[in-house]
Inverse folding.
């Protein structure tokens, strides 16, 4: 029973891991031109802000997809997905979704007048996961069935905890100015 639970949790974390990598790598490799090129929305504030760079986005998608490439060389299946090509596609969609969700989050934060770098639980911790999962489920609807409500709830809580921990770590390593 405990073994089964552990293997299910391991599968879930393995599955979502490319999205975490995609979301983390920009902190280290980001920089240069911003996705919004400095443009402003009708409210006079930035579309997204200085924290969303093209290099960060591309580096994140590439790094997350590379995780899928590693999976594709292994026999281990990820929530029942065993074909090498599908593992890579899934990792790409999770990574692209994570960073698209991250951009959407910044857009929402700017509209709510939340400053760049200022924490906002809903968008910072959850939107990237939600968009990543939606793209993955659109590609492989059976994954939504396999993960279910319980699995999704676990991923939300796990992601929240992991996000807190890694931001604290990134701050400690002086990669981020603030510990969130
Ligand atoms: N980053 C990047 N490109 C991205 C996403 C993130 O270069 N597409 C880098 C930036 O240096 C950013 C850091 O990663 O400051 C942390 O990302 P995040 O916390 O998502 O952005 P914030 O700076 O907090 O900005 P926002 O308030 O818009 O979320
Ligand atoms: Mg932030």
């Amino acid at each position: 029973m405990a073994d089964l639970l552990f293997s299910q949790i391991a599968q879930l974390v393995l599955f979502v891991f490319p999205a975490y990598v995609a979301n983390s790598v920009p902190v280290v490799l980001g920089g240069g031109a911003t996705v919004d090129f400095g443009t402003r929305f009708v409210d006079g504030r930035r579309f997204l802000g200085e924290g969303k760079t093209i290099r960060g986005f591309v580096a994140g998608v590439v790094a997350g997809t590379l995780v899928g490439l590693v999976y594709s060389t292994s026999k281990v299946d990820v929530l029942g997905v065993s074909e090498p090509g599908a593992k890579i596609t899934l990792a790409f969609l999770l990574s692209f979704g994570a960073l698209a969700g991250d951009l959407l989050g910044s857009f929402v934060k700017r509209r709510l007048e939340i400053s760049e770098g200022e924490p906002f639980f809903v968008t910072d911790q959850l939107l990237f996961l939600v968009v990543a999962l939606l793209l993955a489920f659109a590609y492989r609807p059976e994954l939504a069935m396999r993960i279910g409500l319980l699995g999704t709830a676990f991923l939300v809580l796990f992601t929240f905890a992991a996000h807190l921990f890694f931001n604290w770590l990134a701050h400690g390593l002086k990669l981020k100015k603030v510990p969130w």
Remarks:
- The chain has a mean pLDDT of 94.
- The CA atoms of residues 43 and 111 lie 8 Å apart.
- The chain is about 70% helix and 0% strand.
- The radius of gyration is 17 Å.
